[in-house]
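note to self: dont lose this again. the chain is below, predicted strucutre after it. 152 aa total, dont forget to put it in the shared folder this time
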Amino acid sequence: MKVAPLTIAALLAFSPVAASVAMADGHSATKSAIEAVDAEFEAALSAGSASRLAGVYTENGQALPPNGPIVSGRKALEVFWQGAVDAGLASVELETVELEDFGDSAVQVGRYTLKAADGTTADVGKLMILWKKEDGEWRWHRDIWNSSKPAK
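---
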């Protein structure tokens, strides 16, 4: 299945974490927890599970996809991600470039590689995620990303 670049740009919302990221203040527990949530997002997309994809967000989380409106709340995020799965998005690799911990919130800057069901690279880009602790667990609260490919 071929996925159009604008469709990919509109559906991408994620992004992720590499083990090599150093945190200036040494919050390795935060880094490990965030890496685990990013790994869950990667696994959920590979499994085609929109409910698991939405589950990495806070209850009032938002995705800010390129070329589209803000998607707010887990129910809407599940619908959004189901659209991405239905469009043929099959996997994502997330890499963290920078991670700053602010206690009950954190900011992650990174890169993503998105693949279609046939294994071809559908998109590559960069992202920024505002993390929040919700009920003691790290979750994506605001998620914004955009393609690094030239506009066509």
